[in-house]
Write a structure and sequence with these properties.
- By secondary structure, the chain is of the alpha+beta class.
- The protein has 2 domains: 128 residues, Jelly Rolls (Sandwich), CATH 2.60.120; 103 residues, Arc Repressor Mutant, subunit A (Orthogonal Bundle).
- The chain has 11 helices and 7 strands.
- The strands form 2 sheets. Strands 6-1-4-7 form a 4-stranded antiparallel sheet. Strands 3-2-5 form a 3-stranded antiparallel sheet, with no helix packed on it.
- The radius of gyration is 19 Å and the shape is globular.
Length: 243
């Protein structure tokens, strides 16, 4: 699962995330969480960085997991936002990461991991400095999100995820209400709908193929599910947004 940070260093960058349009100016970032459908719409006369990293690479312990999602950085539930940051700090770290990747010196992965941490801290500080309420996530909830994303094809019930994570459905519902304002089952539905959008947009699969890939035995039932959660018929969505 990839987490993406887009940082504009000059000009203006236009992109779309989950059907919403965003414009980044110099010194601004936007974070895109795993599974969100995104594309650049206009990139003329601008420059910047796109940083991608995986959960497996970055998260060595629960504190790393929580840092990814601290203050909602990569846990948006359709709440992506543009954040103005301390440009020299973020740009310096991104330049260092680029150099480390190109040269691959001894222990460069450790260096990159540390620099991503510094970038996320800089973004969190920018949010706090502008008056945002501090939001501290629970690692268990974030593990729940990743468990769902890693098992789309099985279409597991909530009880199965609770068992996998060594917890209870009650606990997952408590965390889902706290972090997402909805039940854990509706969090699962939202993630399935997002993955369906991604498959329809990027992989050019038929509606039937997407249905089977997401554990639906009946493509008609999948189409009804998709329309109920996105307001679009899957075929219409694909014709409108597919790359």
């Amino acid at each position: 699962m990839k987490y993406i940070l887009v940082f504009c260093t000059s000009g203006q960058l236009h992109l779309k995330v989950d059907e919403k349009d965003f414009s980044l100016n110099k010194g601004e970032v936007i974070t895109i969480t795993s599974g969100q459908v995104h594309q650049f719409s206009r990139i003329q006369e601008c420059s910047g960085f796109v940083l991608e990293f995986t959960l497996d690479f970055f998260c060595k312990d629960d504190k790393d997991i929580e840092l990814i999602f601290h203050n909602g950085l990569f846990c948006h539930f359709a709440m992506n936002e543009i954040i103005a940051v301390d440009t020299p700090v973020v740009e310096e770290q991104l330049n260092h990461i680029q150099t480390e990747l190109a040269a691959q010196p001894y222990q460069y992965f450790i260096s990159i991991h540390s620099r991503i941490k510094l970038i996320l801290v800089a973004i969190n500080r920018a949010k706090v400095n502008r008056g945002d309420e501090i939001w501290k996530p629970d690692a268990l909830f974030l593990k729940f999100l990743e468990a769902v994303r890693n098992n789309f094809e099985h279409n597991y019930p909530l009880s199965q995820f609770a068992e996998m994570l060594g917890t209870t459905e009650i606990k997952l519902n408590e965390l889902a209400k706290l972090h997402a304002g909805k039940t854990a089952q509706h969090v699962i539905y939202g993630l399935i709908a997002s993955e369906a959008k991604r498959l329809l947009t990027y992989e050019n699969l038929s509606v039937k193929e997407v249905a089977y890939k997401l554990g639906f035995n009946d493509p008609f039932y999948f189409s009804n599910f998709f329309k109920r959660h996105t307001m679009y018929a899957p075929k219409f969505y694909q014709e409108k947004y597919a790359l």
